Amino acid sequence: MIRQLFTVSSMIMALGMTPTHAYGGVTRIQETNQSKNGQCTGTIIDPTGEPVIGATVTVKGKQGGTITDLDGKFLLTDVQHGATICISYIGFEPVEMVWKGGAINVTMQEDSKTLNEVVVVGFGTQKKVNLTGAVSTVDSKTLGARPVNSVVDALQGAVAGMNFSTPVSGGTLNSTKSFNIRGTGTIGAGSSVSPLVLIDGMEGDMNALNPQDIENISVLKDASASSIYGSRAAGGVILITTKSGKKGKTSINYNNSFRFDSPLNMPEMMDSYTWAKYMNDASVGSGAGVWFTDEKLEQIKKAQSDPTMQKMFKNSNNRWEVWDNTPLLPLGNTDWLKEQFGTSFSQEHTLSINGGDDRLQYYVSGNYLNRGGLLRHGDDSMQRYTMTGKINAQITNWLRMTYNTRFSRQDFDSPGDLINGTDVFFHNMCRYWPIIPTTDPNGNWVPESYIGRLQNGGRAKNQTDRLSQQLSFVATPVKGLTLNAELNYRIVTGFNHRDWQTTYAYDCDNNPYVDINATSSVYEYSFKSNYFNPNLFAEYSRSFGDHNMKVMGGFQSEWFRQRNMKAQQNGIMSGLPTLDTTTTKPSVGGAYNSWTTAGFFGRINYDFAGRYLFEANLRYDGSSRFLRENRWNFFPSFSAGWNIAREKFWEPLTDYVNTLKLRASWGQLGNQNTDNWYPFYPTIGFSSQGGNWLINGAKPNTASQPGLVSSTLTWEKSRTWEIGLDWGAFNNRLTGSFGYYQRKTFDMVGPAPELPVILGANPPKVNNLDMTSKGWDLQIGWRDVIGEVSYGASLVLSDNQVVIDKYPNPSKNLGSYYAGAKLGDIWGYTTIGIAQSQEEMDKHLAKVDQSALGSGWTAGDIMYKDLDGDGKINGGEGTADKSGDRRIIGNSTPRYNFGLNLDAAWKGFDIKVFFQGTLKRDYAAGGAVFWGAIGTSKWQATGFKFHEDYWREDNKGAYYPRADWGGGRNTQTQTRYLQNAAYGRLKNLTIGYTLPKSITSKAYIENLRFFVSGENLFTITNFTEAGDPELIGAGYGGEIGKTYPLSKTFSFGLSVTF
Asked: Which ranges carry the TonB-dependent receptor-like beta-barrel domain (predicted)?
């Protein structure tokens, strides 16, 4: 009865969610001749005799159909004798039968595919039902559900516990999202922890892959799942399996996507007249008097309403005045962000061919992506070319070979002044005055517009090629024994070019003068890296009654070598920006680096009747980055599971909860990723012609004294334990997984205790930092079919917090980490409010002294709360124990990251909706884009529409305090302006239609689908309009708003298979 009520409820609520059918083989059928000719009736039950409610019953080849009622009964009319009746239901094997008249009684069987689903794990596969570690999977349907630029974009919001952040370069075409698994892995000096990405078993770059070449992805999240990879897996492991050829006739697929991008969440600037009044208030607020006279304000106002009156004025240098002489300032009205950024066009094309027979299968694909940037002037673009080929050959009955090759090329081209999202260009565009026009009266670009520089000031061009070759052999000489040999090789080459061309501006008589780069120059950098990785391992499995065992052991090694060369020369000959066409001596440099790892590994799996599960992983690793006596280390992990749903006492409940597994794990990992490949060697700094004196008329080469190194420097380590629960209910229509974990990271590299100055050198870094990370992740999915509507929903949700346990900062100075601190803590003052009158401010100052934060307090200024009761507002001694009136007011760590997928399909139509976001995060707002003309000079001040809500006599109760260029009295980090950076974003909406096969088959087309899609369509957030919550930390100086924006994308395309 419970299942019946649940199913009926789902039928009522089912509108708008994901197409997935679980179809398998044919079940037992009984027929009787009791109904009239032309009407097909029947009853459908499950193996326990319960009616199957909501099963879909159709006539093959015809549209329409019906579903079973509360008693499992159905009725089809106008059915011809000999027609094929199709019956399907999520979690059961489908039924097909020829109707010969009479009633149909069907017992549906559970789908065995669900029970036998396998998951890719380290050096092998396992049945999902027998997994004891924390592993999440993403299949090709999820990855290909929407048009994306990279695999990283497709994974965002798809895996619980996988966190993404936009890099400092913002939304530039060559930027890639950074990601981690289950939070920050280290705070060690010079060390880093990021997930190990393996593509068909070899380390690689996800961003160089064509997302449509991927078959599935496994994310190994805990130590027990990833420890088999040893020192490279401290941040978890992402296993990517690419598509292979399938046995059968040759299949050809072509798909495309055409995209239109526009800037996302770009703030609107004030108009010129409003901006001028705002700046006047700021000038008066700082005690400098008005900046613009009433006459000048009237000129600005008229020019704003009548563009024909917009003009510029000549100064004493015969140039157009822009900055200094107020009466001669121009009369324009420019929104600089809108002027510089606009819409762009991108396109992507993919062609793949696969097929084969019993002995040989092949897969070949090619992909071309051409992305246009958002710049309106100067142009920026990125092209990616990928080619993939894979052959699987059954050489003998016991020997199988796989050969896989991948090539990718990425080209990036942009103005030389705009290499990444941290360039000063973004800083200038936000602070430029709207009264400055883009062109002068002669029609030339105003030099302050940057447009001439973007178009003519030189280019930045980067090209990166990646070629991977993989060869593997799998031998099965005797039953249960599998021998594996893998050889992986990768070569990466890159070439970066940048030139700085002399750019000219024009005076009032149209005579040119140098704007920037009086001396032109060119810089070129090339690099090459080689990576070689052999893997040799064997696996033996055997069953003894209900006892099942599997043992695996092997050896892995990695060898990486890198070289680079660079040169720069000045004096480019016109039109030829190369090193050979310059007029000065070059400045050259280069480097050579390498590292090696080796490891022995093993794994033991045991289960009893699929109920009691155990796994042990052992890894003995060595790294070239440590001294010989510290080079090797042992990393074990253990996990166990209990399949409760397979116990006899659970049998009465299997109709409701058919999968229930409790699991637990413990493991230890090491981290050898440091920015110094030779941390145990004293290194001498060398500079070519770096002396500040002349010998025989030339500067000499110089060398610096080597620093001290530690002879005890060794691995960073982490220990993780986890307990989790996996479940499936109502024939696995409802599935889920939950895991709670704790990770202790210790022996991180940190600063050494201070030594006497007489030493004459900085003390070496040592292993002296510890931290603890705690968190959980949850994944829930529902999938069902009602009539002709198939639908589904899935939710991923995770949380993580990090506490510093040990750090050499005994005074707990707030300028550094300290023991007991949470990563991301924000210290600030508590705000009482804005004083609405001078009388209110005087009463406040009579109780507390705010002079430590500034002087000249008046109406419109902030009143801070005296938390320590000493009658003074200050930061105390700047330590956690003596922080004055500062307290922890928030935390910048993103918490409760989520992804929600909803999708549905009906008669060829499909719809997919994807939401992504963060439910809790704080941000300490700062910088000129947020504060406008408050607490900064007129040269750094900005003026956006949202700044209009500042305090003044006619706008009391405003959000911002009064405008004031002087000092930072009102811009202290404080509770009033602590931003809620939580957000939810409609990341994607895709609607598609697949033509009926009755139509496409006439043109020898297997499948033809059309789609339209939107990306980043809207955002729900209380975050400041100054920036995008996904771009926190990006941009010039890390200031919010001063970076290349993200994109809102609309696309359309098709996919056709022959």
From this structure: 441-1008
Sign of the four-CA dihedral 286, 289, 294, 299: negative
Q: How far apart are CA 719 and CA 723, in angstroms?
A: 14
More confident position, 237 or 10: 237
Q: Which long-range contacts (CB under 8 A, 24 or more apart) does 65-74 make?
A: 65/787, 65/788, 66/787, 67/11, 67/786, 67/787, 68/43, 68/44, 70/4, 70/8, 71/43, 72/43, 72/44, 72/45, 73/41, 73/42, 73/43, 73/44, 74/41, 74/42, 74/43, 74/44
3-class secondary-structure state, position 634: strand
What is the radius of gyration, based on Cα positions, of the chain? Answer: 33
pLDDT digits (tens, 9 = 90+) for 1036-1050: 888 899 999 999 999
CA distance 268 to 289: 27
Is the CB of residue 136 less than 8 Å from the CB of residue 735? Answer: no
Average pLDDT score over residue span 187-198: 87
Give SS3 for 968: coil
pLDDT classification of 210: cutoffs 50, 70, 90? very high
Q: Report how far residue 102's alpha carbon sits from residue 600's, in angstroms, rounded to the nearest whole number.
A: 66
- Which region, left, alpha or beta, applies to residue 630 given φ > 0 means left and ψ of -120 to 50 means alpha? alpha
24: number of CA atoms within 13 Å, CB side?
Answer: 17
Do residues 166 and 177 make contact, with C-beta atoms less than 8 angstroms apart? yes
551 close to 540: Cβ distance less than 8 angstroms: yes
Helix axes of 294-305 and 272-285: crossing angle, nearest 10 degrees = 160
d(CA 795, CA 165) in angstroms, rounded, equals 20
Indicate the SS3 state at residue 648: helix
How would you class 772 by CB atoms within 10 Å of its CB: exposed for 0-12, middle for 13-18, buried for 19 or more?
Answer: middle
Q: Do domains 23-110 and 115-250 have the same CATH topology?
A: no
Predicted local distance difference test score (pLDDT) of residue 691: 66
Q: Which positions ≥6 away from 343 have C-beta within 8 Å?
A: 260, 261, 262, 374
Q: Residue 185: which of 524, 591, 842, 671 has the closest Cα?
A: 671
In degrees and rounded to multiples of 5, residue 427 shows phi and psi of -60, -45
The top-level CATH class assigned to 23-110 is: mainly beta
Q: For residue 51, count other CB atoms closer than 10 A to its CB.
A: 18
Q: Which CATH superfamily is domain 115-250 in?
A: TonB-dependent receptor, plug domain (2.170.130.10)
Cα distance between residue 805 and residue 205, in whole Å: 34
Strands 734-750 and 766-786: antiparallel
Q: Where are the alpha helices (DSSP H) in 376-511?
A: 424-431, 451-456
**Residues 238 and 219 sit within 8 Å (Cβ to Cβ):** yes
Quote the DSSP letter at residue 154. H
The alpha-helical segments, DSSP class H, found in 617-740 are: none
Domain boundaries, the chain: 23-110, 115-250, 825-891
Looking up tokens 């440091």 gives 674
pTM: 0.87
Q: 462 near 411, Cβ under 8 Å?
A: yes
Judged on CB neighbours under 10 Å (0-12, 13-18, 19+), 950 is: buried
Polymer length in residues for the chain: 1058
Rounded Cα distance, 589 and 569, in Å? 12
Which tokens sit at 397? 């009955």
Contact criterion met (CB below 8 Å) for 118 and 215: no
* CA triple 554-558-564, angle to 5 deg: 175
Comparing 52-66, 143-157, 162-176, 226-240, the range with the smallest average pLDDT is: 52-66
The number of beta carbons lying within 10 Å of the beta carbon of residue 335 is 17
Cα–Cα distances in angstroms (integers) from residue 136 to residues 493, 626, 735, 780, in the given order: 33, 33, 13, 12
Residues 365-383, mean pLDDT to the nearest whole number? 95
